[in-house]
């Protein structure tokens, strides 16, 4: 974190779905756009760029670490993170090797957000028992923490062969790779992150942020009870976002893509999704998490949430539902040149 400043970033999940017009990008074009987004974010001076892991035909990010490596070669300063790595269904040793290599390629810019994920396809794909959903994550997270700390690891767990003084290579450029735990809405996940003393990446897709504050309180209380330094327990807020010059423009441009995104993924679950333009106005009100609006509105929203959460990082998903690269580029510019400076200035004055 640069000079303890509040950090800003963007991320992509890399979905490959028909846009509101019905047309679908090619996989190559979608990956090209993701790399272009990262370059724009780097050039604009944002702090982070993230890619989520998904193993479906309607996503292009199954090999997300490889895309991040390509981005590392195309950028200079921006930190690169997973958003998030589904370690429940992966071999933590292999994930660690990938990110240590990414850290070397990027000159020390890699981070890792570990989580259980919202999609379940990887369980069957990689032979993981869905009935052991929580146990898998707990067990493999424990191993990941050991891999980050030590060059040689001896470890025994339930879901992979034991390690006996195993050499864990390569070692990263940084002293260690920063680790975050992705937390959705469960108190147990927040408590685990605090107990382990790991940063918490809080994924919030909508609603009143005051309803989420108990998760942050649980996280910090668990960390304190476990003897961790409270100043080292960092919180990030991530979620769907969009910025345009005016509120009306932002909502008009975001609305069809929001409906398109949720309409597509909820349809396969037998659910229908359609939010009217007037309903979206309510969903993006100042006391709602959904970070869509003018730069000033996002400044006010982030500062309001900072009062509640005391978080030190904001990351937005700008490209959801087939949003065009040109509009995402403008949103990145506004985040970097108007939102970030105003938030940092306000926080310094407190």
How would you describe what is shown here?
- By secondary structure, the protein is α/β, with parallel strands linked by helices.
- The chain has a single domain, classed as TIM Barrel (Alpha-Beta Barrel).
- Helices cover 45% and strands 17% of the residues.
- The chain has 11 helices and 12 strands.
- The protein has helices at 27-44, 64-74, 92-106, 121-125, 133-149, 187-196, 213-225, 247-267, 277-283, 295-309, 325-348; strands at 7-12, 48-51, 79-82, 85-86, 110-115, 152-155, 163-167, 179-183, 199-203, 235-243, 291-293, 313-317.
- Strands 1-2-3-5-8-9-10-12 form an 8-stranded parallel barrel, surrounded by 8 helices. Strands 6-7 form a two-stranded antiparallel ribbon.
- Helix 10 packs across helix 11.
- This is Luciferase.
Note the topology.
Layout: E1 7-12, H1 27-44, E2 48-51, H2 64-74, E3 79-82, E4 85-86, H3 92-106, E5 110-115, H4 121-125, H5 133-149, E6 152-155, E7 163-167, E8 179-183, H6 187-196, E9 199-203, H7 213-225, E10 235-243, H8 247-267, H9 277-283, E11 291-293, H10 295-309, E12 313-317, H11 325-348
Helix pairs in contact: 1-2, 1-11, 2-3, 6-7, 10-11
GO cellular component, one term: cytosol
Protein name: Luciferase
Keywords: Monooxygenase, Oxidoreductase
């Amino acid at each position: 974190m640069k000079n303890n400043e509040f950090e800003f970033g963007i991320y992509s999940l890399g979905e490959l779905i028909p846009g509101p017009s019905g047309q679908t990008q090619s996989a190559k074009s979608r990956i090209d756009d993701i790399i272009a987004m990262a370059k724009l974010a780097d050039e604009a001076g944002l702090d982070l760029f993230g890619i989520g892991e998904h193993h479906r035909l309607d996503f292009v990010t199954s090999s997300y670490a490889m895309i991040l490596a390509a981005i590392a070669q195309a950028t200079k300063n921006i930190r690169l993170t997973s958003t998030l790595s589904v370690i429940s269904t992966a071999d933590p040793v292999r994930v660690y090797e990938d990110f240590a290599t990414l850290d070397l390629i990027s000159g020390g810019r890699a981070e890792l957000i570990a989580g259980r994920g919202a999609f379940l396809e990887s369980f069957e794909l990689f032979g993981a028992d869905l009935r052991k959903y929580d146990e898998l994550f707990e067990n493999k997270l424990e191993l990941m923490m050991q891999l980050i700390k030590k060059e040689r690891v001896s470890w025994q767990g339930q879901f992979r062969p034991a390690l006996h003084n195993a050499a864990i290579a390569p070692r990263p450029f940084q002293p260690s790779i920063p680790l975050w735990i992705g937390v959705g809405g469960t108190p147990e996940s927040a408590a685990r992150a605090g107990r382990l003393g790991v940063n918490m990446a809080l994924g919030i897709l909508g609603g009143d942020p005051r309803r989420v504050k108990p998760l942050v309180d649980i996280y910090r209380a668990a960390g304190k009870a476990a003897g961790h330094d409270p100043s080292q327990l960092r919180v990030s807020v991530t979620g769907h976002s969009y910025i345009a010059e005016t509120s009306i423009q932002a909502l008009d441009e975001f609305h069809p893509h929001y409906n398109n995104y949720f309409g597509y993924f909820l349809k396969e679950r037998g659910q229908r999704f359609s939010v009217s333009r007037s309903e979206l106005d309510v969903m993006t009100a100042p006391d709602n998490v959904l970070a869509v609006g003018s730069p000033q509105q996002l400044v006010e929203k982030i500062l309001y949430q900072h009062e509640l959460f005391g978080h030190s990082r904001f990351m937005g998903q700008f490209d959801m539902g087939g949003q065009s690269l040109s509009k995402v580029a403008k949103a990145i510019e506004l985040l970097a040149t108007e939102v970030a400076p105003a938030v940092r200035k306000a926080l310094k004055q407190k």
